[in-house]
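tokens incoming
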């Protein structure tokens, strides 16, 4: 039986400067369909708030997933364009609307984890504060983390372990799907309780692959052969089909395929507990 863990990185919860940059991108490339879709999103109050859609999809299929919430604090720097994507349009996890959805998910069977901010992979104090801020909202410890942009250096897992995380799931690809360096199973960098769950499928590389369904079939076969845990990551802001065509429909189709294969779906915290009995 194939084992599956569904996860969602919460990078953004509302559309901001993208109301300008996205239409300009499609206009400059003369992509009329893309531009039309962007115009349609102007009628929506918030195309990036994907929580309601995810909850509906997963409830209908009797599934639950893990949400990794980001607590980004990089200050805006007008003169550093590379900074804009990180600093603009971010959300405040202490905003009542955000805390309410975090608490709702936590109380109704979903797992809450930390999406470590862009610089936290190399800053133990920042990592510790982000963990404490999120735990203050839900009122209990969190055990899992995924670093923003999958940032990892030699010290990152040491820092994560020191501040109290039990597992990380940042180990994977940003630009393709599959098992990184043929790491098929959870592993322990320190030969102890701290575990790393490889991330296997992420939304954008999957959606834009011309061979995605054949690739999925091969990944499923490999997962069965290696007794892997298939970790899937679908960002919460990608569930509006006008804004991001095929993202929501591909996610649903993946789940339906895996359900037909009688896959076993569990939260990563539960897979972790099983590994550490």
């Amino acid at each position: 039986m194939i084992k599956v863990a569904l996860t969602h990185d919460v990078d953004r919860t509302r559309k901001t400067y993208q109301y300008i940059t996205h239409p300009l991108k499609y206009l400059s490339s003369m992509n009329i369909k893309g531009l039309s879709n962007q115009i349609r999103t102007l009628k929506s109050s918030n195309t990036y708030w994907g929580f309601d859609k995810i909850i509906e999809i997963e409830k209908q299929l009797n599934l639950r997933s893990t949400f990794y919430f980001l607590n980004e604090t990089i200050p805006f720097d007008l003169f550093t364009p590379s900074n804009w994507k990180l600093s603009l349009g971010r959300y405040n996890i202490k905003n009542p609307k955000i805390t309410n959805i975090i608490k709702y998910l936590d109380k109704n069977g979903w797992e809450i984890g930390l999406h470590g901010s862009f610089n936290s992979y190399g800053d133990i104090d920042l990592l510790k504060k982000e963990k404490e801020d999120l735990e203050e909202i839900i009122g209990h410890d969190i055990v899992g983390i995924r670093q923003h942009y999958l940032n990892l250096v030699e010290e990152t897992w040491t820092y994560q372990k020191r501040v109290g995380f039990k597992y990380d799931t940042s180990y994977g690809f940003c630009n393709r799907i599959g098992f990184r360096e043929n790491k098929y199973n959870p592993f322990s960098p320190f030969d102890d309780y701290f575990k790393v769950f490889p991330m296997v499928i992420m939304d954008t590389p999957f959606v834009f692959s011309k061979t995605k369904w054949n690739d999925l079939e091969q990944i499923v076969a490999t997962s069965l052969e290696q007794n892997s845990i298939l970790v899937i990551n679908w960002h919460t802001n990608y569930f509006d089909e006008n804004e991001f065509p095929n993202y929501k429909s591909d996610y649903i189709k993946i789940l339906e395929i895996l359900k037909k294969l009688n896959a076993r779906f569990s939260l990563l915290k539960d897979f972790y507990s099983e590994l550490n009995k």
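note: The chain has one domain: 3-17+48-275.
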